[in-house]
């Protein structure tokens, strides 16, 4: 599938901002199953300094500084991307999950690259509750593909999608208490369950192309950023991407932008401003349009 992805973020303030420093993760990754034909990040007012660079995990990060006084900061990223459904090695999926723990077997090929994703992170802590919940799926000797997919099914069934249940800073314990959340929360919960048993799993940020109901037209700008999880498959140099929010493996509707240990590594936009403003508003519009 080929898509035109547009992601626009607009900050408005009630007093002038005199200086704005920001970093954005808005450029899709070039991958074996994803080809990025074009990409552009436009910022208004025009930055005095802007640069694109690869961060620690190989994501494209856009760094910028706006020194013009402004009441509105507008950041728009537009990309054209072709995505295929990832294909996985059957033998790698069939290996017992215990063999996919890079901290237990650091000499296994590729383990050093996966190690960072087996450690706890700020928003995916190794809580006792997460470990116990994950243990139901990670039974002794179970194939990793089957175990991870079962965990995905259970999270989808046991937790409700509710935008009002959590915030961007919610913890794994908060998610268990509410039994609800959004894609970011379900990704963090999945990470905690897997990592607490030694598996390497990374937080993936991107977009999911939505499909309108039969007979209805697409609503431009109604899409949103999305998050899912990818689990290391040793011996195959691959990561199994699963989406607990929608109870499915990632396919050709998923546009990958960036990955890290959790959301804090790859928010679409973050930064620091200098202002005396007391109030601000944030508007985000995302559109993932098929191009035939």
From TrEMBL:
Annotated InterPro entries: Bac_transglu_N, Papain-like_cys_pep_sf, Transglutaminase-like
SUPFAM superfamilies with a match to the protein in the record: Cysteine proteinases
Pfam families the record matches: Bact_transglu_N, Transglut_core
Domain Transglutaminase-like: 175-246
Name of the featured protein: Unannotated protein
Originating species: freshwater metagenome
